[in-house]
Write a structure and sequence with these properties.
Elements lengths: L3 H9 L2 H4 L17 H12 L4 E4 L2 E4 L9 H12 L2
Antiparallel strand pairs: 1-2
């Protein structure tokens, strides 16, 4: 599993600029029978870069603000606004 320094490097890399193929998250499976730490390790190994991957033909780049709202808050707001 990646350590914090490796995760920081992954967060800052730009795979499209490097011409590398992104891992499609639709092909990642999570075995919920595994302990959480093993699930996390397998996910990080499978996705290669948890900050930059694809979902079908869409490239996804994830970034977080240390002083921002939680992801669940943003998702809730997004889906509530989709119904308008």
């Amino acid at each position: 599993m990646a350590d914090l320094k490796e995760l920081e490097q992954l967060r800052n890399e730009d795979r499209v600029a490097e011409g590398q193929k992104l891992v499609d998250i639709q092909h990642i499976s999570i075995d919920t029978n595994l302990p959480v730490s093993e699930r996390l390790k397998k996910y990080l190994d499978d996705i290669k870069n948890p900050y930059y991957f694809s979902c079908g033909d869409l490239a996804v780049r994830i970034c977080f603000s240390s002083d921002g709202h939680e992801l669940s808050t943003h998702l809730k707001e997004y889906f509530l606004n989709c119904n308008r």
